[in-house]
Amino acid sequence: MASVVPLCSAFAAQDTGSTRQALRLLYLAGKRTADNSEKEVTENHVRGAKEELDQSKVIEGMQKLTTQGHAVLISLASHAAKGETPVRTRDPIRHPLHQKNFQLILLIHSMIPHRNFSVTSPSMPRD
């Protein structure tokens, strides 16, 4: 247990420097320990908690993307899957997935749960 508090602090310092994040990591590590019916929090629990926290941040960020953001993400993922990275800025826009399958992108986008989501047209100012 003595080594997990500094590890939580180090992970938090590398990311945001937030004490709250360090406490969140320690809490999640403790939850993992309890879920496994173990008695002591280990560095492996902290590392697992960090992975869980990092993954939830990525998912939350993806959920907040606009339709256009999802289109770019899908296009970049397509390029990456084909080994076509790094990608120039104009390449995703010209990619056939973006041009020919925008309806598919909209369908996928409509299936993703969103928080605080709104769509604006280019002529409408964003808040």
Describe the protein's architecture and organization.
The longest helix has 21 residues. With 127 residues, this protein is mainly α. It has seven helices and no strands. It is 66% helix and 0% strand. The chain is elongated. It has two domains: 53 residues, no CATH class; 45 residues, no CATH class.
Summarize it:
By secondary structure, the chain is mostly helical. 66% of the residues lie in helices and 0% in strands. The protein has 7 helices and no strands.
Could you give the topology of this structure?
Elements lengths: L3 H12 L3 H17 L7 H21 L3 H15 L9 H4 L1 H5 L1 H10 L16
Helix pairs in contact: 1-2, 2-3, 4-7
Averaged pLDDT? 77
The outline comes out as: elongated
Q: How many domains make up the 3D coordinates?
A: 2
**What percent of the residues sit in helical stretches (DSSP H or I)?**
55-70%
E-strand count: 0
Terminal Cα span: 46 Å
Order of helices and strands: HHHHHHH
Structural class determined from secondary elements:
mainly alpha
Global Rg: 20 Å
Strand portion: under 5%
Unreliable stretches (pLDDT < 50, length at least 5) are: 115-127
